[in-house]
Amino acid sequence: MKDLEEGKLIVRLFQNLSTITDLQKPDKILLDNPNLIYALSDITPQIGTVRESFFVNQLQSAGHIIEYGGLSTGDFRIDGTIMVEVGGSEKGFGQIKKEDNGYVAADDIDCAIYRKIPLWAFGFLY
């Protein structure tokens, strides 16, 4: 798994980076680049997976540290302080309502509204 990650084929995500070892099972695995999802799939990929793969790829390329948020909170914790939920234009703030520093990265919107940021804007981080 580590070799696949070093080869930029996958991304291993953990909930707590301070306690992981090389042999620990990752909490989530994504393909490194959303283009790989389309290249390797015989059917139309799930858009949620494509969105998450794009988001993680762009932030990691910009040097940010990304942790898996878990099932009860947002999708990802960025640099240990910012919680982000990734979704479509209808994605609400329910999962991150308890987070002081929580945002939604939403696909299919043109501009930022409150704490909802267009997913495409993260492409400028690359």
Q: How would you summarize the topology of this molecule?
A:
Elements: H1 2-6, E1 10-13, E2 28-31, H2 34-40, H3 47-61, E3 66-68, E4 76-78, E5 82-87, E6 102-106, E7 116-118
Parallel strand pairs: 5-6, 6-7
Antiparallel strand pairs: 1-2, 3-4, 4-5
Structure characterization notes:
This protein has helices spanning 2-6, 34-40, 47-61; strands at 10-13, 28-31, 66-68, 76-78, 82-87, 102-106, 116-118. It is an alpha/beta fold and 126 residues long. It has one domain. A 5-stranded mixed beta sheet has the order 3-4-5-6-7, covered by helices on one side. It has a two-stranded antiparallel ribbon with strand order 1-2.
- Tell me about the largest β-sheet: 5 strands, mixed
Question: What's the Cα radius of gyration?
Answer: 14 Å
Percentage of residues in helical conformation? 10-25%
Number of strands: 7
- Per the principal axes of the C-alpha atoms, what is the gross shape? globular
Helix tally? 3
* Average pLDDT figure: 92
Using brief descriptors, characterize the structure shown.
21% helix, 7 strands, 126 residues, 3 helices, five-stranded mixed sheet, two-stranded antiparallel sheet, alpha/beta
Summarize the structure.
With 126 residues, the protein is α/β, with parallel strands linked by helices. 21% of the residues lie in helices and 22% in strands. The chain has one domain (2-125).
